[in-house]
Amino acid sequence: MGNNKYMGKSLWALILGASSGFGEATALELARLGYNIFGVHLDRRAGLKHVEEITGQIRAAGREAAFFNVNAADAEKRKDVIARIEEEFGKQPGTVRVLLHSVAFGTLTPYVGEEKEAVTQPQMDMTLDVMAHSLVYWTQDLVSRGLMESGGRIYAMTSSGGTRVWATYGPVSAAKAALESHIRQLALELAPKGITANAIRAGVTSTPSSRKIPGYEAIEAFARERNPHGRITTPQDVAAAIGVLAQPNTYWITGNVIGVDGGEDVVG
Containing domain of residue 201, as a range? Predict the structure, then answer.
């Protein structure tokens, strides 16, 4: 197991979207590497059993787990979680060494309606707020309150959809593009504080959110055919990469969109 201390403080990771997909896999990988885990997720009662399984695995690795079933884009709920983190660090000095933004909740609606209704302003605003802007607000709170210090690592999950288009994906594509822009700006502003920020561009991955995209089966089949490895990306592939990138000696890697896709994106 990894060293669970940083400058005398316990190491924590804050995972937004911790109950499935990339968030779940990264929470388990970082726990294996020595991190305690704060997890933010939004699940109905039926999904809470799986959340208990995740926290059980984290604790079985000898780490602490504190999960919050709240909307990561709700300002008041965010303040509540931040207060709980401060309370935890008041009992035992700690630092949020890694923040992962892996929140996938937005509208899949065309811009110009014909057979389907066109996207509305509230739908567009919600998608951008949840999938992009919320990263900025969580970062503001963590840094301004001293909960993330020099050595901190910020990661946000993006996709090739940030630069490509297909039917109904417009609002989510816009959110991914905004998310990557936020990462670049955060990298600039946080560099003097010793905190890095990078976007992780995963290859096509079968997750609960991706499977909601209309026509996902065709997208997966095409990705599987063109990927040099003959398969699609898994959440564990991405979690393993984040585990490596979160090491202290990666302090000079910031402001990037880092592909974790087995070479999928370079194949035409």
Answer: 5-262
